[in-house]
Structures are given as C-alpha cells and as structure tokens.
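Posting this for the archive.
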Amino acid sequence: MTTFILKGRWSGEPHDEHRRFEGHVEQTGVLNLHPGDPVVVTFVQGKPTLEGQASSQRGHYKLEGMPTAFFVLTSFTRKDGVMGHEAEWDDPAQVWGGEVFSSQ
C-alpha cells in the first residue's frame, strides 16, 4: 500500500450521491499521481472495496483518474482537523490523505 496527501474541499451534502472532494495532490507515493495534479474523490454507495472490511460495508471512495482495475482507494480521512466536520466553500482548503492498494 502507498499513501498520498490531497488538499481541497468537499462539495455537496454528506449523503448526496453527487458529493465530491475536489483539490490537488500535495504529496504522493502513487504511480501516475504527481504534486499539483488536480484530483476528484467521490464515494460510491453500497459497494465495498474489499470483502470482510467492516469500515467499507457502506461503500467505498473512488479517486478519479486512477484505473480501478489496478488501484483501490482503501481509506480517505481528514489529516488537519476533526473528521466529520466538513469545511464550507469559503473556508480554507482541507488536507486529506489516504492509502491506495495496487494489484500490480
């Protein structure tokens, strides 16, 4: 597994199926992802990433631009504040990070 750090903001309400995190890469250990690259993270409802992983039974995060046949975003959490407390668009950007599992 490799980790990465993104900086950006969520748009949409917490349970909105069109909710998305938009930002850019701050730090990366992931192939094909470079500092400054724009990124979008979405949450796909009801499709776990890995069988038997209790934390993902509600769904999973998807990092747009990464081929899902080779990469699975296994976690995505806030790194600079209280998780679950989302910023408004006029607030400063937030720092989020995650882990990517590679099947290659």
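Residues 1-46+57-65 form one domain. The two ends are 11 Å apart (CA to CA).
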